[in-house]
């Protein structure tokens, strides 16, 4: 402890002090840490000299407090005071940066990130969104003063993502100018959210650029290794080979390859011919199936830079804000990494099955309808049916159940015996399972669903009910009306995955049941339109169409909501409550600063930047960002409605 | 404690906090790997406690005859570790290697004309160590009044610069700065040029 104190006296004002001593602090007990903090505080007051050093010490003490986990013990009003104090210090210190070049960091720049982090913690504790909006305002203000502060941009990417303004989050991510090897280490800030969003074009761009970079390097690596050999830098030869292997086994690379194909399948799901073309390019899912088979024996590398992530989401799998305030201190990153590895491999294993499952489902549906409708029609290929069963069995195991038990689970939820909570956090996975189960049952007729109230449903009815139930349930959640991205992303996934795959199965059925060529129906020939299968398909098209129309209607309603109403909601959450507490204190402090700024003290550049800041513009952009995300989803729904209407018309010809 | 060591491939996955800074360019992989393959002695990283990357320097040695010189391709420090003379230490290291190991005549670098913080850093010379020198030219742009007069500039250890027009991505001018090493006894390498040059006129890039 004495050594740390001595180090503090000499270097405590430097930005790197906290990271320098971090490892040493870990070995101290909580009491010792608290004692150290008190001693550091008294040291800094007795040695205060010039302003920049004073500022440096102030920042260091705040960082140390955060590091030792003290902030989680502070009361709400203490945290509020801390956020105000930090923002005040930032504002008071602006004159110190008056003569700095615009490209240099402002003295005390970290204070706004820290204030923002405290405000997010306040949100976590109180569930008051005013704090969250305030955290955004603080960072946007900071970026107006200096637009190159990348730490603010990273925080905004996550804050806007959490609030469902993913298009705006993506804009801030682009502002980071991430390219080349940084794509491997920095993409994790945006890619996971994009992959479950309706922003398909942007997701495609991200994936394409990243995969191109990785593929290019892996291709060039041999030449570069040889270059090192030619220049007799033999240690570099070994290093280059090891590095190439590290990138080849990158977990993000693995995920990107799988997700890129699934994105193509999602984008083309409205048109079965286009989908089949995509599947053909994917070799009918065979390559991904092999990947899924081998994944258990793979070890992956994690090359992402987790350090730059906000405290509330240390990895993409974790978001503390989605749960209740737990007063956690420091969560050991090692445990999170192990969890992440297991998750990633599991997700990749399951997602790799999708292309093959979709292909087999289309094949099965087509063959079965022909078998049903044509006198000398081809019989469903038993190999296809048996492979589909095998994959379903695997898929069910990944959901944690045997095939038989999984059938009971979906049947139970569909019949109302159980709620959708039986699906846990994996609603999308379960609905995918139900869709492919139905496809398999077309050929196998093996699925025996239990009687419910004397009524035995078909697997078509199970899929219809589940899609309707789950999608409309998620859509009506109160939280969706407010902010969180999570529930919206589940809704997007339900519509763009299981519902989309089910649409393909129906398209395949309808296509195969259409009369071939221009032959008209002969009189006396069997009327397929009244067959049970035809009835099921028609019913399913109707039901699915109804669900998507409901979602589209709901989206339209939210998009049309007046901007003024939303802006009012934002600013009223930042208003004073008359008791000098609650969100908005930092926001008002910034407002006061701007209205009373001294141009001579701050210099021309900083004054002009501050005068140009408009919280209303920030709020407008946020609202527009949310709207853009909803609009992209609406466009997807509208194209699905169109496709289903075309399907209805085709069915009329059968 | 700071450790300065040779840069290795894995450092490419650890330099995010340095390279996200807008003044630091992130090159393509082939660029970094070529430097590592050909000039590993000119590619060093400074590592702080907790194995954090503080900054790094990339360079090479090239040329023939009296043009044999060290070149600083890039030097950058993470914002957290700035204003601690780290860039200077990295530059000194590269100079030493060019001077004592490769016996180069001079070292040089290009800097964006708008990168005032970097230019200021190169301008500052320690008492024992001469500062970097701009090669001279007649200025095309009147805005850089600081570099017009040779006499007033000598007092700042700066002479008129060699400006390379549209050096950066065909848009922004670059300034060519040089420092003579011990082998260049007559300091011929830093005799100023009288006019700006274009990128295709550069002997070495």
UniProtKB/TrEMBL annotation, chain A:
Tell me which stretches of the chain form a coiled coil. 255-282
Region annotated Disordered, chain positions: 514-544
Transmembrane stretches in the record are none
Which keywords annotate this record? Coiled coil
Q: Which PANTHER family match?
A: N-ALPHA-ACETYLTRANSFERASE 25, NATB AUXILIARY SUBUNIT, N-TERMINAL ACETYLTRANSFERASE-RELATED
Family statement drawn from the similarity comment of this UniProt entry: Belongs to the MDM20/NAA25 family.
Q: What is the protein name given in its UniProt record?
A: Phagocyte signaling-impaired protein
TrEMBL record, chain B:
Q: What is this protein called?
A: N-terminal acetyltransferase B complex catalytic subunit NAA20
Species in which this protein is naturally found: Citrus sinensis
Tree of life domain: Eukaryota
């Amino acid at each position: 402890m004495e050594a740390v104190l001595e180090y503090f006296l000499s270097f405590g004002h430097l930005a790197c002090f906290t990271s320098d001593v971090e490892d040493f602090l870990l070995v101290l007990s909580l009491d010792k840490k608290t004692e150290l903090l008190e001693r550091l505080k008294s040291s800094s007051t007795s040695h205060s000299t010039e302003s920049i050093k004073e500022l440096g010490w102030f920042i260091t003490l705040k960082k140390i407090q955060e590091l030792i986990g003290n902030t989680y013990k502070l009361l709400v009003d203490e945290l509020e005071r801390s956020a105000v104090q930090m923002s005040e210090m930032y504002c008071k210190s602006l004159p110190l940066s008056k003569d700095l070049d615009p490209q240099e960091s402002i003295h005390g720049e970290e204070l706004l990130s820290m204030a923002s982090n405290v405000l997010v913690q306040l949100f976590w504790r109180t569930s008051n969104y005013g704090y969250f909006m305030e955290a955004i305002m603080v960072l946007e203000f900071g970026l107006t003063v200096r637009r190159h502060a990348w730490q603010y941009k990273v925080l905004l990417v996550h804050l806007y993502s959490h609030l469902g303004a993913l298009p705006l989050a993506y804009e801030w991510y682009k502002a980071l100018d991430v390219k080349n090897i940084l794509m491997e280490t920095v993409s994790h800030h945006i890619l996971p959210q994009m992959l479950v969003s309706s922003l398909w074009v942007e997701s495609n761009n991200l994936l394409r650029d990243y995969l191109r970079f990785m593929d290019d390097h892996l291709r060039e690596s041999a030449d570069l290794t040889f270059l090192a050999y030619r220049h007799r830098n033999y240690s570099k030869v070994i290093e280059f080979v090891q590095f190439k292997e590290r990138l080849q086994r990158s977990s993000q690379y693995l995920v990107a390859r799988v997700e890129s194909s699934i994105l193509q399948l999602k984008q083309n799901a409205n048109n079965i011919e286009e989908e089949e073309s995509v599947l053909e390019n994917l070799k009918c899912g065979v390559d991904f199936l092999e990947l899924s088979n081998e994944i258990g024996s793979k070890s992956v590398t994690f090359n992402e830079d987790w350090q730059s992530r906000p405290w509330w989401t240390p990895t993409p799998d974790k978001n503390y804000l989605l749960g209740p305030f737990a007063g956690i201190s420091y969560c050991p990153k090692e445990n999170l990494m192990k969890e992440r590895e297991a998750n990633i491999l599991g997700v990749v294993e399951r997602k790799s099955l999708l292309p093959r499952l979709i292909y087999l489902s289309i094949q099965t549906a087509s063959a079965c309808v022909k078998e049903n409708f044509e006198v000398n029609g081809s019989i469903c290929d038993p190999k296809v049916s048996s492979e589909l069963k095998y994959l379903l069995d695997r898929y069910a195991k990944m959901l944690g159940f045997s095939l038989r038990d999984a059938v009971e689970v979906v049947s139970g939820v569909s019949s109302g015996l159980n709620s959708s909570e039986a699906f846990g956090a994996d609603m999308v996975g379960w609905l995918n399972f139900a869709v492919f189960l139905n496809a398999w049952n077309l050929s196998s007729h093996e699925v025996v669903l239990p009687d419910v109230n004397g009524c035995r449903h078909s697997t078509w009815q199970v899929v219809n009910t589940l899609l309707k139930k789950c999608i409309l349930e998620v859509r009506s959640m109160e939280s969706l009306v407010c902010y969180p991205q999570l529930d919206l992303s589940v809704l997007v996934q339900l519509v763009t995955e299981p519902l989309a795959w089910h649409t393909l199965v129906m398209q395949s059925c309808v296509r195969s049941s259409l009369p071939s060529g221009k032959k008209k129906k002969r009189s006396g020939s069997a009327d397929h339109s009244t067959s049970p299968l035809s009835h099921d398909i028609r019913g399913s098209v109707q039901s699915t169409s109804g669900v998507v129309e409901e979602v589209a209607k709901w989206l339209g309603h939210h998009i049309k909501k007046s901007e003024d109403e939303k802006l009012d909601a934002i600013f009223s959450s930042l208003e004073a409550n008359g008791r000098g507490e609650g969100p908005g204190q930092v926001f008002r402090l910034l407002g006061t600063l701007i209205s009373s700024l001294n141009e001579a003290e701050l210099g021309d550049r900083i004054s002009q930047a501050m005068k140009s800041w408009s919280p209303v513009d920030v709020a407008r952009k946020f609202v527009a960002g949310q709207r853009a995300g909803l609009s992209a989803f609406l466009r997807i729904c509208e194209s699905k409605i169109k496709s289903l209407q075309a399907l209805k018309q085709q069915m009329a010809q059968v | 404690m700071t450790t300065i060591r040779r840069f290795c491939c894995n450092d490419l996955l650890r330099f995010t906090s340095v390279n996200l800074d807008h003044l630091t360019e992130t090159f393509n992989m082939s660029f970094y790997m070529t430097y590592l393959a050909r000039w590993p002695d000119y590619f060093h990283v400074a590592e702080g406690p907790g194995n954090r990357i503080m900054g790094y320097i990339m360079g090479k040695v090239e040329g023939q005859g009296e043009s044999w010189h060290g070149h600083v391709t890039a030097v950058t420090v993470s914002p957290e570790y700035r204003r601690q003379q780290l860039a200077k230490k990295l530059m000194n290291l590269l100079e030493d290697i060019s001077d004592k190991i490769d016996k180069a005549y001079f070292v040089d670098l290009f800097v964006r004309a708008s990168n005032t913080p970097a230019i200021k850093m190169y301008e500052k010379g320690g008492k024992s160590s001469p500062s970097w020198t701009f090669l001279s030219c007649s200025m095309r742009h009147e805005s850089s009044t600081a570099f017009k007069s040779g006499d007033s500039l000598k007092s700042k250890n700066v002479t008129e610069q060699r400006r390379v027009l549209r050096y950066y991505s065909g848009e922004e001018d670059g300034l060519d700065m040089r420092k003579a090493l011990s082998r260049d006894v007559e300091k011929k390498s830093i005799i100023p040029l009288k006019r700006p040059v274009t990128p295709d006129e550069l002997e070495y890039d």
